[in-house]
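name: query_chain
kind: protein
chains: 1
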Amino acid sequence: MLKIGITGNIGSGKTMVSKLFELLGIPVFYADVAAKDAMVTDAVLIAGVKEAFSNEAYLPDGALNRKYIANIVFNDDAQLARLNALTHPAVFRAFDAWVAGIKDAPYVIKEAALLFESTSYKMCDYSLLVTAPLKERIARVTKRDGITREQVEAREAKQFTEDKNAN
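structure:
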């Protein structure tokens, strides 16, 4: 079975394109959703996050303390890289398990904002890049997420440029 990676910068429309594949009956793995799930279900990841960021990284009920983690990683690129180094392997494991459970599909889609940054493109046979003009992407994300232009630009800065993704 072929594995197709779909990526694009924030607000590019990669999720919309992936939803179109779903309408056609193609299974789609959403890496961001899998990462959020792994943060509270993958024992190896949970242990690594606690070791790297302290037990405060999780609330008493086992939920990820998102505010605590965000305050650390979005103000320090080294800490963000540390979190990503823990999270990406857990998402790789989740993708492998997901693919193993797929039957009778000619191909599957892996939607991932950080397809190249995480090196998960290596798990795919082909990669598709979804693009849109920066002005349009910023408008989409500010409306969708209720955040400022500056916040969108800060998130954009954490991703490869479209030129780098295309190569």
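note: The chain has eight helices and four strands.
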